[in-house]
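fwd from M.: "can u put these together and see what the complex looks like"

so here's what she sent:
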Amino acid sequence: MENPDTSTSTSTVRRNSKRPKYSKFTQQELPACKPILTPRWVISAFMLISFVFIPIGVATLFASRDVVEIVDRYDSACIPANETDKVKYIQTPGDKPCNRTLRVPKRMKPPIFVYYQLENFYQNHRRYVKSRNDQQLRDSKEANSVSGCKPEDYNNGSAIVPCGLIAWSLFNDTYSLSRNNVPLNVSKKDISWKSDREHKFGKDVYPKNFQSGGLIGGGILDPNIPLSDQEDLIVWMRTAALPNFRKLYGKIEVELQENDVIDVALGNNYNTYSFNGKKKLVLSTTSWLGGKNDFLGIAYLTVGGLCFFLAMVFTVVYLVKPRQLGDPSYLSWNRNPGWH
Amino acid sequence: MKRYAYINDDGPSQDLYRDNRISNTKYTVLNFLPKNLWEQFSRFMNQYFLLIACLQLWPLITPVNPASTWANEREVWVVENGIKKLIQAQDIRVGNIVWLRENDEVPCDLVLMGTSDAQGLCCVETSALDGETDLKTRVVPPVCMGMDPVLLQKIKGVIECPSPDRDIRRFDGNLRLFPPFIDNDVCPLTIKNTLLQSCYLRNTEWACGVAIYTGNETKLGMSRGVPEPKLTAVDAMIDKLTGAIFIFQVVVVMVLGVAGNVWKDTEARKQWYVKYPDEGPWYELLVIPLRFELLCSIMIPISIKVSLDLVKSLYAKFIDWDEKMIDRETVTPAHATNTAISEDLGQVEYILTDKTGTLTENKMIFRRCCISGVIYGNESGDALKDTELLSAIETGSPDVIRFLTIMAIGNTVIPVKSKNGAILYKAQSPDEDALVQAAAKLQMIFVDRSANILEIWFNGRTIHYKVLETLEFTSDRKRMSVVVKENDTEKIFLLTKGADEAILPCAYAGQQTRTFTEAVEQYSQLGLRTLCFAWRELMPDEYHEWSLVFKEANSTLVDREWRIAEACQRIEHDFEILGVSAIEDHLQDGVPETIETLRKAGINFWMLTGDKQNTAVQIALSCNFISPEPKGQLLMIDGKTEDEVCRSLERVLLTMRITTSEPKDVAFVIDGWALEIALKHYKKAFTDLAILSRTAICCRVTPSQKAQLVQILKSCDYRTLAIGDGGNDVRMIQQADIGVGISGREGLQAARAADYSIGKFRFLTRLILVHGRYSYNRTAFLSQYSFYKSLLLCFIQIFFSFVSGVSGTSLFNSVSLMAYNVFYTSIPVLVSVLDKDLSEETVMQHPQILFYCQAGRLLNPTTFAGWFGRSLFHAVVVFMISLNAYTYEKSEMEELSMVALSGCIWLQAFVVTMETNSFTILQHVAIWGNLVAFYALNFAFSAVPSSGMYTIMFRLCGQPSYWFTIFLTVAAGMGPIFALKYFRYTYRPSKLNVLQQAERMGGPILSLGTIESHPGTIEREVSPLSISQSKSRSPVYEPLLLDSPNTRRSFGAGGTFEFFQSQMRLSSLYSRNCKDN
């Protein structure tokens, strides 16, 4: 028993190595900034928000008001008055022409966008929104991949291109516009996203077996034009998130003057009658914020106004009833030692 | 069941017992999968996730496309077929003879057969087993003594040993060698003859032994045990909230499911483009509800479990790393063994503490003594400097010399000569150490213990004693004796020391013990530990007759402990009482302050000790545990019979009820005997008392009673913390919600069993007030925030379903949904582990603030409802604003989804910012960096042509309306919350807010402190309590304290046995030498 000393010293060394390294992180002593809500700070924050938000609100509201918009609902107007069964009427094959007249309320600068607007149409329905196959649309070699397209996947055993409910229900009303009996050119070029044309829809993918089954849904496609050039389809297949939506039909590149009268020759083909959906034709200019939408402007003004109001209330309360922060008399255990 | 280990028998008997492989005791290869799965799925949250996972596999309804044993391979020398072989330790079989060299680790439990030492001794270091760093001697059983090493290889015989157990201080076996080897006598074996697994052989060239327990059946393996998993109160609350959310989810799913089916049958059939088939499969009606179930599954965040586990392990690391919790003396850092229960530290309501070694230093110093009625050391407070005593030694007063002799040799201390000639003592108990040291200073120097011969120098003379028998200390006998023969005179003496109640009744008829009783009383009122010394000369005949009985008792297998106690009883009587020694045990630094601070924090203290009542009360007084009169009041529960205990209990309960309204510190004192009766027959009354009482002192309690007390408090739904340092605290530590072990002088047993180990009692303040409190606050925020962000996204999905024909369409794509939970929202909140609502100093000055954690003010159904409301409000804001800003020609699915998602991400960044109290650089990086990362990641997704999000993010970020929408969302979402928070903070501040404000305004925070400084050392506390003053205590106090003459049970030689028998059952495996006397 000659080395009890060495054994204790080795154990000290061992314990020493367990000792942690010192750093501000391990000791939870990182320098920290601890803000507190002082009245001055809070009131200025609210003031600042209101001073920023109110001008933005005014600007957006003006932008929205600058947009000229013509909306014409035509779904019920385009049913002949003697037709009682609208659904039967729309489902009969053949042309169902209809004429509408629009008056331009204000000068409209090009480009003027022509939209069709559908209401109560659930493009976001779960069965519908997934019923497509992106691979098939992009690649001609993938013509047979129709997974997810049920029930519009095969027609008599051969794959449908483009498959799925979305393509099958393609919107097919047509509009031809004329001003003073002079046709207005509605350009259908570049109405879809460039990225979609170039990367989502193949240049060598041609429609096949489309709308050739027993039940025809919506529009038909020219089997000789590749999908990347079928811009109506590309626009349609960008599904809308809401049951009321607008989709671009075309662009007018000429200026429309105030009180111009525009005649619209409609091909009324699309069935929204079975679910009481509305169909509207929309002509609209655009601003730096997009189409006509007062929401942002009103919301900004409201929030800015409320912030200003709150800032005022807090200021008044602060002046009328000042309160010292951190007043120790609020600690009840300083008043009553038996506090628990 | 007994086992028989056949020595060197290579036959089939070897296969009766398991081999020496050690495995993870929790699992085996076979039961791993079912057992683990069962454990996992007994948690509600996991069952839920299993259900969701199963549903995800069903494509029709999914809304978006979507094992140990370790070897023991060290090589050891083993005799096989008479030849020494080197084999792997895992192949050792019971009965093998294993050879060890110096500094080898013992591979399994062995019975020692031979050593290099001529007297059959060897030294082992047991620190890995019990944490005691002193070397222990082990001895070869007598029959094998001096056997030739060659012969040992061929030895045959049988060892009878009990079934494997975990008691590392006890082994009752028998050894019988087979005929070719010596006689056929049965030789008793004790723990002294064993080498236990994980010990190291020291200072001995070689040793060999027979394997008796192997693998997991060794004493170490058995004591490893399977600790119960501890669930914190916070975890329980989170589970409860998860359950509530689940019910909410089921309701939502059912409502939406019915609505979906109704819409389908009324509306969707008309929507021709959806092409609903007329006839659906049989489960048609279930499809929509199940779709919603999956859509709503994000309501319960999977990430919460991962995040919580992560931050919990960081809390534990912070404890390990804490510089301020390193004990400078022994360089012991704090350690969190259990990483999962840090929050509970902040919710502790009761602390049950051991006394010796926990409150005190367990560093014993001999202070006073009373020898044959003369009291030494009272004037100077140190008997070693008492001139009277020194002159008594000079003159050779026989009583004094005998007293010193017992101090020097009545023990199991081993003297070790160091290189410079000084003598070091290796003592197993600090009391014995103190006595031997003191004797050495009083000229009675214990020099050497070789085999049975003890050598003492006294006044330059060398005296030799031969140890005939050692009657070891047990906590039931409360005394230890040695039978020695003086070599010169051939006289045999019985030298005994022990607790007063175990010694004084055994005095010879006619001896006056009153002076000793008074001395004991006086010393214990000073908080000193007392031991009585007695002796008797034995006639050779008497000794020989008795030694046969003792030997037989020593070799019994059944009830050996009791039989030995009975045998000891036969010789320990008719003592001549020599005197009383008083040993001081210093209070640890900072104990009174720690207790004061923690009591201010609303934590109740119970002291559970094996010590005498008076000593315990005095220590309690000196460490602020109880207040002196008139502020404090002590109520005594005592009695020997059921009726007495019952009456006393009821009286105390009544007093307690009356005084609850008064601002008075009322504490009750109970001793082990009364406690046993109270727990057995009056459990309800005692539980009532436990609820009423903020302080209690339980003296003379056994380890199992300590555990029972913990159990009682736990059954009243209190969060308990048990703190102790010795083996006798292990059960209480394991039983409590939180076990804290002090890695101190008594070894590591308690620290090993504990959830947290600290070096000193005073670190408890920091452990609870800093680490516990922060952990609770952080977890409370993190868990509720996790629910908030999941609910936020889920509510948006639910709202969206109302505009998508209740068909279960997901607004968000699968990538976003996944990244939202695991990436976008979990990283900013993880850095909340660095958040500090108040600085450490403020908390220390105002420990009362812990109340918020104890009462669970930060995580409960009410606060959760707040977060629930917030997520609903934010969902409405995000949904309404994105929907209205992106209407008509802009309402493209992918775009709208990203606008809504961006809104959520921005809002959650601001919510984290607002709920953070202190920003370090890491928090800024995580919160704002996460926003940047969100855009970077989505730009990356938008650059992949095949992804659904192709070009979306680029388009959005180029639109002014996108940014206007986001800013509007943030302002509308945060504005009201910010205003409300400001209003509450300023005009309805909680105490927490007031302290925050005070701290950050740099105001008069220091003057707020109501904590006076306290005198820290025991001297200043004890000296005013000296005997003369104690008599002048107020009358209310005296009857209550002195109401205890009947607590000191007097039992004569006859009555002791019943006491032993009943105590035997109570005594625990962990009873510790000399700890309780």
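replying to her w this: Residues 39-66 of chain A form the longest helix (28 residues).
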